[in-house]
Prior knowledge:
Strand content: 5-15%
Shape: elongated
Number of strands: 14
Distance between the termini: 95 Å
CATH superfamily of the domain at 366-616: Ras guanine-nucleotide exchange factors catalytic domain
CATH topology of the domain at 366-616: Son of Sevenless (SoS) protein, Chain S, domain 2
Amino acid sequence: MSWDCGLKYMFSVSPSLQPTGMCILHDKEELSRLEMVQRLAKDGCRFLQNHSKGPGRTNEPVQSDEALRVQERGRCVLVLRRMSSQSARGGGKREEEQAVRKRRYTVVSGTPEKILDHLLNDLRLEEDKAATQVKDTDNLLDDFLLTYPVFMSTSDLCQALLGHYCCKRCRVKEDTKEALERKQKVAHLVSQWMYLCGDFLREDEHVKVFMKTLYRYMLDDLYEHPTLEGDVRELQKLYQLHCRHTVEEYSPQRKSKTLLHQFSLKENGILSRSAHRKTKEVSCHVYITMDSYLSMRVHPGVVAQEVLQTVAERMDFSQDELVLVAVTYPGGRLLLQPHDTLFSSFLRPVGRLHVCKKDLGEVLNPFTENSKLQQRAARMLSLNTWDMAVALSNTDWTIFHSIHEQELIYFTFRRNASGGYTAALDLILQRCNEIQLWVMTEVLLCTTLCQRVQLIKKFIKIASHCKAQRNLHCFFAIIMGLNTAAVSRLNQTWEKIPGKFKKLFSELESITDPSLNHKAYRDIFKKMKAPKIPFLPLLLKDITFIHEGNKTFHDNLVNFEKLHMIADTVRLIRQCQKDHLGNGIRPKSSAEVRAYMDNLHIIDNQQTLFELSHRLEPRT
Length: 620
């Protein structure tokens, strides 16, 4: 039988494969034939090669627009597009292998179940087995694992993976071989899923139950498929499973002498994201007036007395004069005792925290012109600008490094969802707003013209240092703070700024220019080496633009081309997140600078800020 006849036999459907035609598959038998052709192509068979030499044919790789529509019961369930390439003449075996690797099908749209089914069929264990992480940024596997929350829940994915692992759809003659390959593919996909999303999912009860069940299934299969031992060991390594007893004890009927041990998921064996947070500092807002607060970095077990001591030192008050009050949401007021904790087990404050005098009056009136306000400005002017930029960047790196790519997906598609899926992302967005308000607060609370000029010069230098440290998130926040109307209207102050600082500020300001879709920023950011912190609001804007400009479903099928574009965008987080100690920033600044930068005084009321601005320079 010739190759052409064999091809027609396997695809006995109409129309036949043509460069611009479509192959419609009507049932599972025809789909299995397609899978057979794909496997043969991966093994180096070239019977799918087009030998016609039409005009204009080149030796460069060509992308075919041929679409394959898989139908079940008269309904389209999967749309694929074939990516074909032609090897160069005389290129040898290596070029032919590269051409075969590129002769694959990409998902255009489909049902969640069929996309997962195609993904498992398309996995190549011989190439991916040595990989410990998803490295190919254009890989269907990476796109699927990043974006699956858009079209299916984690619970549904767990059930689907268990179904594929236990599936018995292979033919009798090939049952053992294909069953083993299918189980290995599922194990490989789960490993990649946990490498990518493990820390993000370890609080999910569905994942815990799924892992226990899958592990038990794999142990049961070890006797029939001993080669699964490596996959089970990988599962143990991934999930920090704890030794109980041997396989022989687990199943006395086994005669295998495998040295593998059974491990079980201990409820507290997996470190959750909340457990990680408990070992780090958290952000705390302590209001000193109705519209201004201190943004503090404290440990989760902090008590009222520690907070009072910090506020007293920062605001130059005696600790004996102050009390800490929690304003509950219904409007009640709770006077906190010195040893009362401020955060619940979920790291939520007991209420809106206010520091008051013992007569329950406000600690600081921002409109009061006294020596204490002048001392505040003088204290900041005495600090080193590079050390201040380092302190800002180290805090930003701590938050940014804990952001997971899927947080951007949840933020865009499930903004009203609960569960803390966007906790780190929300924190860094809040941080950007706080830095902007801090710049405004420090300038507008400075009542002396010469000191105000020095403060603006200092902020320009800090912004320049943040750019040098590749922290563009904080850089944007400082420039936007200086550009707000309440600060930029201070003409008498800006006139006193030296020319070289005005020129530097103009150069920095041009980077934040939004024209041509922030072209200036994008060009500079692209040239920067990683690790680096991007301006997160702009990245979210890009993802939202893709989301709003493209439908998520086409004819009740998931628009996977849209999800590929979103996955390609959120992968920027992964590219930027590296060990921040490698970016040339000193890991620590002076203790004095850290004490100041960890307790920023912020006025969060725009009307109050404008009133302060007009008090400094009344409208003429």
